[in-house]
Design goal:
Layout: H1 2-7, H2 9-20, H3 29-45, E1 49-53, E2 61-65, E3 72-77, H4 86-89, E4 93-95, E5 98-100, H5 104-124, E6 132-137, H6 148-155, E7 160-163, E8 173-177, E9 179-188, E10 192-193, H7 204-216, E11 226-234, E12 240-241, E13 244-253, H8 257-269, E14 279-288, H9 295-310, E15 317-320, H10 326-331, E16 336-337, E17 344-345, E18 353-355, H11 357-376
Parallel strand pairs: 3-6, 3-7, 7-16, 8-15
Antiparallel strand pairs: 1-2, 2-6, 4-5, 5-18, 9-13, 9-14, 10-12, 11-13, 17-18
């Protein structure tokens, strides 16, 4: 299969260029669906059935199946974090052994790798395709709200979950992730002229300041808990007592049992006002459970290490604070490994890159892994 993939390297890069040059930020449904349409056609050409799950505002989600009783699920997202127009401003480019462009590593290179792993299996081990089911989702970068139920539905009963986020910069796979929560705190006060009648105003910003200090105090980095108001807004003008204010808060947890505790504390803090006559509305919650490196994960990792060794790849693994769809399958008790895409780095930035030699190497690793897991089944 590796020889087959080596002959397809230029073809893979051409597809990658095509995908990268389509804006598919999470809020740009049209672009995500264009990417999905291209991939749908390519999978169908190989004999896969593709079921499109329509979404009104987010990108559509695709469920791609070859056999009748698949035992392996692979998950890859089609959305990026970039605004419309980014692909035109800095399109796909190659400099030496690196490729650049919006979403090139997170995770359009993974889309190419997953597709061509299926092509390699069809060429070298077609029976293994019977084990595969793939979910391509369009809202991972904003929490997978529409796709989570779909992922969990099709992950039910699977023996293995392979998540196609990119490998780390050093090539490591991901075996643990922190859980993620998103909260928004909205405060209402009363406007007044700050020079003429400040006593008649009620400052929403003052109330929000109290809340942010209390929320930040919930952080316990030794226990793997972080709470951070990363975005705040409020007020109407510098000389007006602020009638409204809002904070958007990121929460990370290390263990599943921390979710209920931290959620309860956040709700308690926001249940009463520090500034009299202000009102508070809290929205959000913990939307991704932690991915824990348990015995099932370790056993699957050992299989990947054996597979990598046969191809001359030393497999290492890491824990990371970022969230992904791996959390959902891991929480369901399914052996899950993340970071199975190609190697690159600086995701979500203008410097985002793919190490081109890893495209064929990691695609072959994925194909060989699926063949091995399929044979075990």
């Amino acid at each position: 299969m590796k020889e087959f993939l080596q002959t397809k390297k230029n073809e893979m890069l051409l597809l990658l260029e095509r995908l990268v040059n389509i804006d598919s930020g999470s809020s740009h449904k049209e672009g995500i669906d264009e990417v999905g349409g291209i991939l749908k056609e390519l999978y169908e050409e190989m004999g896969f059935s593709v079921e499109v799950h329509e979404e009104s505002y987010n990108g559509n989600n695709l469920v791609i199946t070859y056999g009748e009783n698949p035992s392996i699920i692979a998950v890859a997202h089609m959305d990026t974090v970039f605004r419309v127009g980014t692909a035109k401003d800095r399109p796909f480019t190659i400099v030496g052994d690196l490729a650049y462009g919006p979403g090139v590593i997170d995770m359009k290179a993974s889309q190419v790798a997953l597709l061509y792993a299926m092509k390699a299996l069809k060429e070298g081990n077609p029976q293994a395709l019977e084990s595969m089911q793939i979910v391509l989702n369009g809202d991972e970068e904003i929490g997978s709200d529409t796709s989570r139920p779909l992922i969990e539905k099709y992950a039910e009963g699977k023996k293995y979950a392979l998540i196609m986020e990119p490998a780390r910069k050093d090539g490591s796979l991901v075996t643990a992730r922190r859980g993620v929560g998103r909260y928004s705190v909205y405060v209402k006060g009363k406007a007044a002229h700050s020079g003429i009648e400040p006593q008649n105003g009620i400052s929403a910003i003052e109330e929000l300041a109290h809340k942010i200090i209390k929320l930040h105090a919930l952080a316990n980095h030794e226990e793997g808990i972080s709470v951070s108001a990363g975005l705040i807004e409020g007020g109407e003008s510098v000389n007006t007592i602020a009638p409204t204010a809002a904070a958007h808060v990121d929460v990370r947890i290390k263990f599943a049992e921390q979710a209920e505790i931290i959620d309860g504390k956040i709700r308690e803090i926001c249940s009463t006002s520090d500034v009299p006559k202000t009102s508070i509305t809290l929205e959000g919650g913990i939307n991704r459970p932690p991915m824990v490196k348990n015995q099932q994960t370790i056993e699957l990792l050992e299989i990947i290490k054996e597979t990598g060794a046969e191809s001359g790849i030393e497999i290492t693994d890491v824990s990371t604070g970022g969230g992904s769809d791996a959390s959902f399958t891991s929480a369901m008790g399914i052996p899950t490994i993340d970071g199975l895409g190609p190697v690159g780095g600086d995701a979500h930035s203008e410097k985002e890159y793919l190490e081109i030699p890893s495209l064929v190497e990691r695609t072959n690793l994925l194909a060989e892994l699926i063949a091995r897991l399929s044979a075990r089944e």
